[in-house]
Known about the structure:
By secondary structure, the chain is mainly β. The chain has one domain: Methylamine Dehydrogenase, Chain H. Helices cover about 5% and strands about 40% of the residues. It contains two helices and 34 strands. It has helices at about 1-15, 385; strands at about 40, 50, 105-110, 125-130, 130-135, 140-145, 150-155, 170-175, 180-185, 185-190, 200-205, 215, 220, 225-230, 240-245, 255-260, 265-270, 275-280, 285-290, 310, 315-320, 320-325, 335-340, 345, 350-355, 360-365, 370-375, 395-400, 400-405, 410-415, 420-425, 440, 445, 450-455. Strands 1-15-14-13-12 form a five-stranded mixed sheet, with no helix packed on it. A five-stranded mixed sheet has the order 2-19-18-17-16, with no helix packed on it. The radius of gyration is 22 Å and the shape is globular.
Amino acid sequence: xxxxxxxxxxxxxxxxxxxxxxxxxxxxxxxxxxxxxxxxxxxxxxxxxxxxxxxxxxxxxxxxxxxxxxxxxxxxxxxxxxxxxxxxxxxxxxxxxxxxxxxxxxxxxxxxxxxxxxxxxxxxxxxxxxxxxxxxxxxxxxxxxxxxxxxxxxxxxxxxxxxxxxxxxxxxxxxxxxxxxxxxxxxxxxxxxxxxxxxxxxxxxxxxxxxxxxxxxxxxxxxxxxxxxxxxxxxxxxxxxxxxxxxxxxxxxxxxxxxxxxxxxxxxxxxxxxxxxxxxxxxxxxxxxxxxxxxxxxxxxxxxxxxxxxxxxxxxxxxxxxxxxxxxxxxxxxxxxxxxxxxxxxxxxxxxxxxxxxxxxxxxxxxxxxxxxxxxxxxxxxxxxxxxxxxxxxxxxxxxxxxxxxxxxxxxxxxxxxxxxxxxxxxxxxxxxxxxxxxxxxxxxxxxxxxxxxxxx
Length: 457
């Protein structure tokens, strides 16, 4: 059955071509990327180190008061003016957003796209650029919605009509008025946002499965076989590629990439539990860490993690079993905190903030990993009926020095960064929340379960 499915998928992917109505001058399937001869990075097994994250300690489950409130400091909030990639910036971490914080609904759009009942769009890719929101619908149509005009001003579908019903997952990034899109069919293409023309398009044959990064005229991304690519942003050709360990067990965790632009290093955490540091200028491997349990024979265990987070010299890895801090240059572990994080941590200059599976919000010292304080996020909500309405957490951000936790049900809980005390609790979206939260020009944007864009001041 698996072999038959693989054959059918291969036929579908290779059969995909461009729609003549889009005006593209060349079919990407006629210029397969595999015919190119890119540079490959050589693997050096001596740089690989296995990391033990299966510590004997029990998962942390304790509430702790902060005894040194005067010493706790938070990063200065920043005003974000664009959101060109999935996590806004190369290091996947904005530690404190600026926001007017009136929580007043200013505008609500019509439906941005239709939803499929069997598809979870929580991690659907949205980008904001020059007062526009850019995303895609279930048929793979890229659209631009103008925040000022409050309507769609552009739509474009890359695929042939007989292929539009295939479920698409598209990863987006924008640089210098060029939108780059990679999908779960193995295609990647560049769209000029000024003249709305395709610059180039390539078929790489294997579905892509990672966020996209951009640096030095290179696009970085990985496919479902854990092969990471550097692609020339001007032509779509491969600069280099590197095949990491493949896993045959699939989970919701996707390959994740973060960049250290100062040292020109790329960090790649794959679905097999390997973390690579690669200098993308040379290119060469700096070091490799392996988080899989080496005591298990074969590929019998899923590796689950959240996106990599970087802040200064801190590289934070949050698996289903632990939060770990590594030196970004030497790969030496600073500390290992045994816990069950459920969402990407927030790293500030001095602290790492995390929400755990056991409903604890915790603050860790970046130097030694000690718990500064920890609080149960529902402790101060007396009404148990309200507690049941919160459902699952969809996002977690620090905004105007406040720790905000957002729920799929539309609720927002806001906490003091000094001690974890609950300051605010309210339902801000009656139709729930279906995406991550965006902050732009001191406004807050939410996409609800009806696929309507909500703007708050």
